[in-house]
Design goal:
Layout lengths: L3 H5 L24 E3 L6 E4 L9 E2 L6 E2 L4 E4 L8 E2 L4 E10 L7 E9 L20 H10 L26 E6 L8 H8 L1 H15 L3 E7 L3 H12 L6 E7 L8 H9 L14 E5 H13 L5 E7 L7 E6 L4 H7 L9 E4 L6 E3 L12 E5 L1 H7 L11 H5 L6 H9 L3 H6 L10 H5 L6 H54 L10
Parallel strand pairs: 1-14, 9-10, 9-12, 10-11, 13-17
Antiparallel strand pairs: 2-8, 3-5, 4-7, 5-6, 7-8, 13-14, 15-16, 15-17
Helix pairs in contact: 3-5, 4-7, 11-14
């Protein structure tokens, strides 16, 4: 519930700490979603979400159908991967993935046959209102759905009914506060009724009584479309559309929960611990398709933007499509001197080249000129201790001090300053008058800390193996010594009779 205190003050929602108001540059907000043509080759990395990588189920030479499972989930935090179209598996080998390092990962190469034949194994669940929620949750898992807002966390894990932490409210996150990105915006305008139905399915699965569709006020057409869809709802669920003032990073779920309910999710806790579940717009639409249509996740909407893109827009793209191919559909073929970003400019990743496939977490593809990039990233200067970064931080950290500790590899001190609570939103870097790339230092610190943990774990595992070996060798020595004592006791010659003549 929205806090009465804020109502008395005239606010429709409780504000969250920090935040900024960057130039949103939503040039594609009125660009309808266009279908991207099938590329000549699709490349599917076996890991496209947070958690464990999948294992290939196909071999070179196999023919696959669209929606056919081609890689199985390994472990609990994992979901399967499906073929984006029908065709032939031509090879399975390492290939570059969307990551700043340019690192590669085992990938399945599919050559489309042009028929786009669909695997009909999964059937629509028509009577989902009377279907067991565990079966619906399993459908979400089987369809390979991960968070399409960029986090790519396996969605089925969040859709569990926990009696210890019952979900009271489902919040549909239509904020999309990253500059440039408009893929969720267009989904709300063009597929509003499907999204509301997906939300109803989610509320049924978790047992929530209240639903809130949160949209920032710079998306007036999306707000209108979603309100119409809610008004046409005949299920009688308590769902409302809430317009929020535009502020970055309001799309982060903890900040969104605080802005709507006034509740703060404690550090180390999850939204479920305050009775709330947040779901992204794209993810909710994918849940609709999984349940109502029986379609696994094989495509997603991507925003293609940036000052170097001749024809900016939003496209429905098959997973595994090369970014170079997508850019070419928008008139961009020469990448000399350009900066390519995977995601938005605040939290996205800089890529070395465009020959990388789109994956489940690909919200946007930006191509920026050198002039634009230099203007956005001037040369770093010394910190003047102005405190602007602390004021902008939505987590209430002290970014300048935290960056100093990360830069000097003082990892224990960085941890004391709550390094791992940082959501890497980039608000601190945006407001810094000295142009210090604070988030880069945080990522460096987290990477170094992770490396230290790996080395410590390796050392601990080595110590345990060594101790186990020493214990085993000592046990074997003791067993051999015991056997020798037993043999000596059994074969010791008897003393001769003293009275024998």
């Amino acid at each position: 519930m929205i806090k009465h205190f804020f109502k008395k003050l005239g606010f429709s929602q409780a504000p969250f700490a920090g935040g900024i108001q960057p130039n949103m540059r939503k040039e594609t907000e009125h660009s309808p979603i266009e279908v991207c043509p099938l590329p000549p080759l699709l490349i599917m990395p076996i890991k496209q979400h947070i958690g464990q990588a999948c294992s290939p189920l196909v071999a070179v030479g196999d023919h696959v159908l669209r929606g056919q499972k081609i890689a199985k989930a390994e472990g609990y935090v994992s979901v399967p991967i499906h073929a984006p179209t029908s065709g032939q598996v031509i090879k399975i080998e390492d290939y570059a993935i969307p990551h700043p390092s340019g690192m590669g990962l085992t990938s399945i190469f599919i050559e489309p046959d042009g028929l786009d034949e669909r695997d009909e194994t999964l059937k629509p669940i028509e009577d989902w209102q009377h279907t067991d929620v565990s079966a619906l949750r399993e459908r979400v898992r089987m369809c390979g759905i991960a968070g399409l807002g960029g986090a790519a966390f396996p969605t089925f894990i969040k859709l569990v009914q926990d009696q210890r932490n019952p979900i009271e409210t489902v919040i549909l996150n239509g904020i999309e506060c990253e500059p440039f990105l408009t893929n969720d915006h267009r989904l709300m305008v063009e597929h509003s009724q499907e999204i509301v139905l997906g939300m109803q399915i989610i509320m049924h699965m978790v047992g929530a009584k209240q639903g809130i569709i949160a949209i920032e006020d710079n998306k007036s057409d999306a707000i209108e479309c979603m309100k119409k869809a809610v008004n046409h709802d005949d299920m009688g669920l308590d769902i409302q559309v809430l317009s929020l003032p535009t502020r970055y990073p309001q799309g982060s779920e903890k900040q969104l929960i605080e802005a709507i309910t006034g509740k703060q999710v404690p550090m180390g806790k999850l939204p479920m611990h305050v009775g709330v579940l947040c779901q992204n717009i794209g993810t909710t639409h994918a849940i609709y398709e999984a349940v109502i249509l029986g379609y696994p996740l094989t495509e997603r909407v991507v925003t293609i933007s940036g000052d170097a893109v001749p024809q900016q827009g939003n496209m429905l793209v098959r997973l595994g499509t090369s970014m170079r191919f997508i850019y070419a559909q928008r008139g961009l073929t020469d990448f000399d001197g350009l900066q390519i970003l995977h995601g938005g400019p605040m939290m996205g990743e800089r890529l070395r080249h465009p020959d990388i496939p789109v994956i489940k977490s690909s919200t946007g593809l930006l191509a920026l000129s050198q002039d634009f990039f230099r203007e956005a990233h001037p040369e770093e200067e010394p910190c003047i201790r102005c405190g602007h970064c602390s004021e902008a931080c939505p987590i209430r950290l002290t970014p300048n001090l935290l960056a100093d500790h990360c830069r000097n590899e003082q990892l224990e001190k960085a941890a004391d300053y709550h390094l791992f609570d940082c959501i890497e939103c980039g608000a601190c870097s945006y407001v810094c008058p000295s142009h210090i790339p604070l988030v880069h230092y945080f990522r460096f610190g987290k990477g170094q800390a992770a490396q230290v943990r790996r080395e410590q774990n390796f050392a601990e595992a080595s110590r345990q193996r060594s101790e186990f070996r020493d214990t085993r060798i000592q046990r074997e020595k003791d067993e051999k010594a015991a056997k020798r004592r037993k043999v000596r006791a059994t074969h010791t010659p008897t003393e001769p009779n003293q009275g024998k003549e």
